[in-house]
User: What shape does this take?
Amino acid sequence: MLTFLSAPPRIDAAIVDLDGTMVDTQGDFVAALGLTLTELGLPVVDRAFVAHTVGKGSEHLLRTTLAHVGGDAGLYDAAWEAYQRHYLAINGRHSEVYPGVVEGLQRLRSAGLRLACLTNKPTAFALPLLAAKGLDGFFDLVFGGDAFARKKPDPLPLLETCKALGSVPGRTLMVGDSSNDAQAARAAGCPVVLVSYGYNHGQPIRAVDADGHLDRLDQLS
Ligand SMILES: O=C(O)COP(=O)(O)O
Ligand SMILES: [Mg+2]
Assistant: This one.
């Protein structure tokens, strides 16, 4: 499965990140934040701001956005209610599956691996997005950022996902797009490969320690 690595580990299962790895969701984040900020009478944010800020969950994105546009921290609860409402209404409308993702997931499944999607996005956003993009059928399990007590880059969500998959971390491949995924994988003891086209807080992904870097998920072979 990881023949592009010099010493490929044996893999029984894979954990795949969602935003920036399988689906380019930047447009959904910009749209839902725009509707939320407009409702609150605040200025909107652009794509570049979202690309730098996304990755540590929706609560972090919203708090950072409010601070960036000069919104009072006391607005957070109202903003969170509005953001969830708007995000669920537009979920997937401004998002695209990256080239090679379907083929890559098909390869992982044909290799007999159990698959989980593990994202920092709330589970209630992740499930309908995967379904809308026709990706839900690939996954035995889907866990969002609210599924466990801590989010990536903490290793806890990976360790819990390995347990749920019935697979040991050393044989469970993490596929992600950011240092959150890589740090969580390293701390959990999972091999990790990173895609080159995602968000990674606006930083170069090849500088992030990983077992390999891919330009498309169908390079997994
Ligand atoms: O919602 C986010 O902040 C990013 O989610 P991800 O873990 O799927 O990249
Ligand atoms: Mg990601």
Summary: The chain has two domains: 13-25+95-219, 26-90. The mean pLDDT is 96. Residues 31 and 90 are 8 Å apart (CA to CA). The pocket of 2-phosphoglycolic acid (ligand 1) is lined by residues 17-20, 54-58, 61, 119-121 (CB under 6 Å).
